[in-house]
Amino acid sequence: MSNKLVVVCGATGGQGGSVVKALLADGRFAIRGLTRDVDSAASKALAAQGVEMVFGLPADKDTLLKAFKGAYAVFGVTIPGFVPGPPNDYDQGKNIVDACKANDVPLFVWSSLPHVSESSGGKYTMVTAFDQKAEVDKYIKSVEQPAVVLKTGGFVSKCIFPILLIINVSLSRQHNQLPSAAT
Question: Where is the NmrA-like domain (predicted)?
């Protein structure tokens, strides 16, 4: 294992968990995972594999400032609020970027989404999570944080298909498990 530390936001979630899994398989990096609950079964399972699990929330810049100390790279993902107002995806993303800048993190990998309002010419303006993440892309450029911006798209398998199963509708008349977009 190298001395290079990679911090993964949302380490026990779908995207962050996939990043942690890949980093563990690679074996060349120290991994610090951020989570809302260091005592959860998922956090303990990652800790048992050598991941340093720490409390950290994208909405709480102070926890990020502490967690990003010494990081070579940070994988950033936000927790959608689904309600107007802070802490929204933009505020959370800005906190992550600011914590990277404050800690001189040389590489930031940002999980973003396309800007729906702009790409639709203003036709669709209520896709807030997409637009706010895309606004963070602009902020990253404005503060000159070295970054890789991943435009992941929506996670349809996470959003639509569980609802179809709940209301007992299936496209194929079979209830097959769909692969997650995050794994």
Answer: 3-153
State pTM to two decimals: 0.82
Quickly tell me which residue has 């936000």 as its tokens: 78
Domain span at 40: 5-152
170 with 96, same domain: the answer is no
On whether both 90 and 117 belong to a single domain, the answer is yes
The encoded tokens of residue 71 equal 């990081």
Cα 180 from Cα 52, distance rounded (Å) = 25
Q: 167: which residues sit within 8 A by CB, 6+ positions away?
A: none
Question: Are 90 and 30 members of one domain?
Answer: yes
160 and 143 belong to one structural domain: no
Q: How far apart are CA 25 and CA 151, in angstroms?
A: 24
Selected residue with higher pLDDT from 102 and 177: 102
d(CA 19, CA 126) in angstroms, rounded, equals 29
97-152 per-position pLDDT tens digit: 999 999 999 999 999 988 888 988 999 888 888 899 999 999 999 999 999 999 87
Q: Using one digit for the tens of pLDDT, what is the confidence trace for 36-45?
A: 999 999 999 9
- Cross-sheet strand order for the sheet of 147-151: 52-55, 30-35, 5-8, 71-76, 107-112, 147-151
**How many degrees, rounded to 5, is the angle at CA 137 between CA 72 and CA 57?**
60
CB 156 within 8 A of CB 179: no
